[in-house]
Amino acid sequence: MPYLELKNITKKYDKLVAVDELNFSVEKNEFAVLFGSSAAGKTTTLRCISGLEKIENGEVWFNDNDFTNAPIQGRQMAMVFQTFALYPHLTTEENLAYPLKKKKIDKSEIFKRISEISEMLRIGHALKRKPDTLSGGEQQRLAIGRALIQQPKLLLLDEPLANLDAKLRHDTRAELKRLQRDLNMTMVYATPDQLEALTMGDNITIIKDGKFIQKGTPDELYQNPKNLYVGKMIGSPEMNLINAKIVNNQIELPFGNVSTNKNKKINSDFVSTDLIFGIRPNDITISNEQENYDAKIFLKEPLGDITILDLSIKDTKLKMILPEEEAINYDTGQNIKISFNIDNSYLFASDTGVSALN
User: What domains can be seen in the chain, in order of their start residue?
Assistant: First the structure.
């Protein structure tokens, strides 16, 4: 049985269904990511797990116990919010001690835990300072420390890096992952940021409109999206999408035909329907092979070690990626020939978005 499992949970606010029969599971000591766009239901899901929200239907199981109606205090969980939620009138030391004092823990134990946590999170130098004198990264580490000092069996993090600048987010991502591994702790991390999801999650659960869409490792979601939504959510730049049909066992595109994916079969239910052909920018190459297409570069986007080339083939717009040392040989306005790595391509039903490949 999973360490944490949500079984068909539903949460409504009046007529708004924020979480809709959601199934979600996490194994012990896993760094699990809950990934979805804004208003997908991520925060509400975490609040249902923690007991901050009462669910209408479904069950919450944790550590082999039914926690559906358990009081917040007995759940042995802690939550870190997007806003740091620190007490501005208390010092770092006092903020860390506060949840322990509420539980009437012995002073010597409080002192011991503060020493351990402040050293682990590298905020020992700031114990006598108040939050408004700390940097954004120090405030975030303090918020995490105040959750960890309670020694929870499960740590919930709700977009905790959203208010940090880009470099600080990068550094804190690495710190959080290190911390989770060092403590061997189970964490559930909610984010709308694809980079955070892919770099941090052992497993990623994608939700949309409060519903479960797909779960898998970063590689599984990237290589085998079950529908168009997942295909677009995972991968940067976004997957190229082109209207398509199946004609005589070939994929008919607006600018020509391409072969079908040799690694997967097309589901016979979709052969006569309108489809969407998906190809990732890194699976387009400059080539003079037999199956190639004339394209024109209308924009170059240098990104340091790589460059994104924006292409047009008749009325179809595509993006491809080249290493910088290769991209310097091509200019805006230049005509090139390109080919697709078809064995890494995708097909989706245009009406439902469901994958048409088995």
Answer: 4-229 (3.40.50.300), 237-349 (2.40.50.140)
Residues of the chain predicted below pLDDT 70 = 290
- Using a CB cutoff of 8 Å and minimum separation of 24, what contacts does 22-29 make? 22/58, 22/207, 22/210, 22/211, 22/212, 23/212, 24/205, 24/207, 24/212, 26/2, 26/186, 26/188, 26/203, 27/2, 27/3, 27/186, 27/203, 28/3, 28/186, 29/184, 29/185, 29/186
Q: Please list, in sequence order, all residues whose beta carbon lies within 8 angstroms of the beta carbon of residue 170, skipping any fewer than 6 positions away.
A: none
What pLDDT shows up at residue 121? 87
What is the pLDDT, as a whole number, of residue 56? 94
- Predicted local confidence at residue 290, as pLDDT: 65
Query: How much is the pTM?
Result: 0.91
Give me the pLDDT at residue 34, please.
98
Long-range pairs of 93-98 with CB within 8 A, sequence gap ≥ 24: 93/118, 93/127, 93/128, 95/131, 95/142, 95/146, 96/142, 96/145, 96/146, 96/149, 98/146
Q: How far apart are CA 59 and CA 86, in angstroms?
A: 31
How far, in Å, CA of 348 to CA of 325, rounded? 34
Q: What is the pLDDT of residue 236?
A: 92
Closest CA to 219 of 239, 237, 197: 197
Q: What is the pLDDT of residue 244?
A: 95
pLDDT at 33: 98
